[in-house]
Amino acid sequence: MYRYPESHVHYRKLTREYPRIVRGEGCWLEDEQGRRYLDAVGGAYVVNLGHGNARVADALSRQARQLAYVSGTAFTHGPAEELAAELARVMPSGLDKLYFLSSGSEAIEAALKLARQFWVESGKPGKHKIIALTPSYHGNTLLALSASAREAYRALFREWLVDVRRLPAPYAYRCECGGSQANCPVCSGAALEDLIRREGADSVAAFIAEPVGGSSTGVAVPRPEYFQRVREICDRHGVLFVADEILVGVGRTGRWWAIERAGVAPDILVFGKGITSGYAPLSGFATSERVLDVLMRGSGALLHGQTHSFHPVACAAGLATVRQLQEERLIERCARLGEQFHRKLASLRGRPHVGDVRGIGLLAGIEFVEDQGSRAPFPRAAHFAETFQQAALDAGLVVWPNSGQADGVNGDLAMLAPPYIVTEPELDEIVTRCSAALEATLKALNAGVRS
Ligand SMILES: Cc1ncc(COP(=O)(O)O)c(C=O)c1O
């Protein structure tokens, strides 16, 4: 085991021990002791093609040998041109201009800057406010964190964050209406219009949201009408709609983009995570000529740029990933296996402290509660999500824990997002190991042990 301060690595958590992983194959990871872990979340919703994919690895290595780096300010190259063309073909209508970066947070920053710059160069410099949902997560750099309703990450840096206006997320399990009323202002999207009116449409630049809630709501799936309503409201009030598809895009929900469920297109669509299946860091955003022509006639360039934007090797990994998703029809497979996955996961419903099990495609959230009737969460001090994550790891299963979704502080989730190449027996194994982890978690909590 590896831990601080015995190693020179500044670990993400200084208080825990880390197994050293030496290889990955398909949905499985192996540590140096030969222990195998079933990776039920692709690391962090990233490894959509599975571990050890030779085709993507070869594409990376070929590109590194041919041309590893040129600056995007001076040159273009094959991988950026071809990846942009491939993505333009599968993007929602009109979003056929692609900008590439490295992390999701950077792409969110750049997309929000574009929204602001669009309005300034359209002659509306008063439009600067951003509206975002709560709960939500859009990244960890300061503008992306400003847009995120994740109190635990924000509190220390509050003075450095910009003021982002908040709208309750369409999160049926925790909405007063319980998701049962089509005309609920929160679940229908109508509340966005009230907020824009209150703020003054001439001051609002953008509304940013995940088309399906990712880790911050444990896969709250809004009604398809929600984003139809959002689109109409944004059009009516001249607000750009930014869809954050970093977690839920690139096929994860069984469609190329989660927003397709609503049959509408955002003004800017941001992607990351699974776009290279983890073989290189790549993110980006797509937008339309309608938006970029304003900059073309104005300043001539987005006021953003980073050394590794349009990185040839990362773009080559993206291109190989996109081609494999298409040629092997893996997004269709994700949709098909997703249905089976949710049928299998339903066996966890009703188990002690399981409040809800929900999801879409190969993306699922298990929400734990102290009391199933009232939906009251465990107190944060119980560290239910973290204890479950550790129990899962002990059972050889990798899940993603999350907390705070119930009221900003309390609330426990375990998230699942297996690679699209997962097999049916592996899906069964995920459910079996989740069930064992739940039992172990309850035992640990009763014994007063927590992670
Ligand atoms: C919805 C969403 N947006 C943005 C981000 C930030 O991406 P990154 O961690 O690559 O900066 C994440 C990361 O988890 C995310 O889930």
Distance between the termini: 16 Å
Assess the beta-strand content as a share of residues.
15-25%
Main sheet strand line-up: 4-10-9-8-7-5-6
What composes the largest sheet? 7 strands, mixed
Q: Helix- and strand-based class?
A: alpha/beta
List ligands, each type once. Answer: pyridoxal-5'-phosphate
Q: State Rg.
A: 22 Å
**How would you name the oligomeric state of the polypeptide chains in this document?**
single chain
Helix content: 25-40%
Q: Segments where pLDDT lies below 50 for 5+ residues? A: none
Mean pLDDT: 97
List the total number of helices.
14
Q: What coarse outline follows from CA principal-axis ratios?
A: globular
The secondary-structure element order is EEEHHHEHEHHEHHEHEEEHHHEEHEEEH
- Let me know the number of strands: 15
Structure description:
- With 451 residues, the chain is of the alpha/beta class.
- Helix content is 36%, strand content 16%.
- It contains 14 helices and 15 strands.
- The chain has helices at 42-45, 54-66, 78-90, 104-121, 142-147, 151-154, 185-188, 190-199, 224-237, 289-297, 312-327, 330-345, 384-394, 424-446, and strands at residues 21-25, 28-31, 36-39, 97-101, 129-134, 165-168, 204-209, 240-244, 268-271, 283-287, 354-360, 363-368, 397-398, 400-403, 412-416.
- A seven-stranded mixed beta sheet has the order 4-10-9-8-7-5-6, sandwiched between helices.
- Strand 7 (204-209), helix 9 (224-237) and strand 8 (240-244) form a beta-alpha-beta unit.
- Helix 8 packs parallel to helix 9 (224-237), helix 12 (330-345) packs across helix 14 (424-446) and helix 13 crosses helix 14.
- It is globular, with a radius of gyration of 22 Å.
- The structure holds pyridoxal-5'-phosphate.
- Pyridoxal-5'-phosphate is lined by residues 103-105, 108, 137-140, 210, 214-215, 244, 246-247, 272.
